[in-house]
Design a protein that fits this description.
With about 325 residues, the protein is mainly beta. It has one helix and 24 strands. The strands form six sheets. Strands 9, 10, 12, 13, 14, 15 and 16 form a seven-stranded antiparallel sheet that branches.
Length: about 325
């Protein structure tokens, strides 16, 4: 009987191992650490796009989004950087790509407008030379509808951040979108694609442009600055920074004095972000090449309340600012 019991135990162990191997989750790119980190990508397609019409590539592997625009990859070793690309339709048009550092489990929202993309260069519109390294933040204006108390339709517009692009490869969309089919209330007409562009050029104060890309031949089509088409403006619209040699450094810690790794520290001049970085394992950060003047510095981290500090009249120098973040 004892011999039979030992045989049964061995058999059960072999079967258990075989089942575990057969039903274990196959993780791509050798992401086999346990428990590892989780990356969730959330795809938003405006104004009325279908997420299942998009695919994404991580490394050499291709995946699809669910109907609600989600995809999750698990068991990623902490500190891994993934190059993620999102493609539209059967033609596999590249619409978004970025390197994502997985230093903690996180959700990254990818926002793209539905339609056919067109890449434009700021140099094709401006009558001044654009410096290499110039980046452009792109916001897409989204119409939203609701019914007022009197039963009449009301349309509001808000903007959604799409991403940051090099000045010579700004990715926009051309065409009009028919609203009849999608409005939950009767509202005639179409929307033309309208964008807000924030140009961040080394040595200059960031400035805003408006881009219209309706049907080809639309007289409003193009880039605009303060009510005038950019191509018609002969003077240089940029304002040089007088100084750009400020360095900020410091630490980000919790209320108990423990360093917070991976906290995001961002510096703003007015409405514009001039730079950002993340803290190291000791909670330290350093940001250089910032403009003199009035600056706002913000520190944020998952699970903590954001902290902001305002400093007026910052001159060219190195400053130390330490943050203590309170848990949510």
């Amino acid at each position: 009987m004892e011999k039979l019991r030992k045989v049964l135990v061995v058999v059960l162990l072999v079967v258990g191992v075989a089942m575990a191997l057969a039903f274990s989750y196959e993780v791509t790119d050798n992401y086999t650490s346990n428990p590892g980190k989780t990356l969730t990508l959330k795809l938003q397609v405006f104004p009325f796009g279908d997420p299942t019409n998009y695919t994404l590539k991580i490394g050499s592997d291709t995946y699809t989004f669910t109907k609600d625009g989600r995809f999750t990859l698990t068991c990623i070793p902490e500190g891994t950087t993934l190059h993620v690309s999102v493609y539209e339709g059967d033609l596999q048009t590249l619409v978004w790509e970025n390197d994502i550092l997985v230093n903690r489990s996180k959700t990254v929202t990818v926002t793209v407008p539905a339609g056919t993309y067109e890449t434009i260069s700021l140099s094709d519109y401006a009558n001044y030379s654009i410096a290499e390294g110039t980046m452009v933040d792109v916001y897409f204006y989204i119409p939203r509808f609701y019914t007022a108390e009197d039963g009449m339709p009301v349309r509001r517009t808000s903007s959604v951040f799409l991403g940051t692009f090099p000045y010579n490869s700004i990715r926009l969309i051309r065409g009009d979108y028919d609203l009849f089919e999608y409005a939950d209330i009767w509202f005639g007409g179409t929307i033309s694609y309208k964008y807000r562009l924030i140009v961040k050029e080394p040595g200059y104060v960031p400035y805003e442009l408006t881009a219209y890309l309706g049907n080809t031949g639309d007289p409003d089509d193009g880039l605009w600055y303060s009510g005038d088409k950019l191509e018609n403006i002969q003077e240089d619209i940029r304002t040089p920074w007088t100084d750009q040699n400020v360095t900020l450094q410091g630490t980000v810690k919790d209320a108990q004095g423990n360093p917070i790794e991976g906290a995001i520290v961002a510096v703003y001049a007015g409405r514009y972000m001039m730079g950002s970085t993340t803290t190291d394992a000791n909670g330290n950060y350093t940001l250089g090449g910032l403009p003199a003047g009035d600056l706002t510095i913000r520190a944020s981290a998952q699970g903590y309340m954001t902290s902001s500090l305002n400093f007026d009249g910052v001159e060219n120098n190195t400053y130390t600012f330490d943050f203590v973040l309170q848990a949510r």
